[in-house]
């Protein structure tokens, strides 16, 4: 069972999300919040597997709440949900430690898939968000792209062969359990590899690691 905290300041939106989640018997909403500060407090109290946060809330917005939750309750994965698709929101959310970013206008199936992915230790970006990130990576001139690629490759070179293999699978969106099955080790070993990779690359979460993997050419995207 995936234990989830839902935070959105609009009751109608919460009701709609609640209805979507009720279709999945593996998801249990353990708490709801109407502002960011309450979301942080309830996360600390209930320790859910996933916190689903609206990006714009009173008291504490979703970006600040994400940072506080990741600081105080690091075992809770955070998904940021918004109607705003601007690149700045995406960058700030991921920079604050969010493991997922979804648009409210997206397919409800993406919401369920994202919750399951983040609960399993993976990262999840809606297709629209993934396209924005890749487009941003590819938008600058050839010289800038070449520099980013070289920098990413240098960062990846410090990893062992096995860590590079795990990073490539992280970049492909696989969860720890899926990676364990792919490379024939126990899931705990994968968690150790992922922790080492995040530390060596000096990134906050799997999404940022996946971007490095993409830039270094470790994924097929």
Automatic annotation (TrEMBL):
SUPFAM superfamilies: C-terminal effector domain of the bipartite response regulators, CheY-like. Residues 152-217 form the HTH luxR-type domain. It holds the Pfam family Response_reg. Keywords: DNA-binding, Phosphoprotein, Transcription, Transcription regulation. SMART domains: HTH_LUXR, REC. The modification 4-aspartylphosphate is found at residue 54. Residues 3-119 form the Response regulatory domain. PANTHER family: TRANSCRIPTIONAL REGULATORY PROTEIN NARL-RELATED, TWO-COMPONENT RESPONSE REGULATOR. This is Response regulator transcription factor. It comes from Fodinicola feengrottensis.
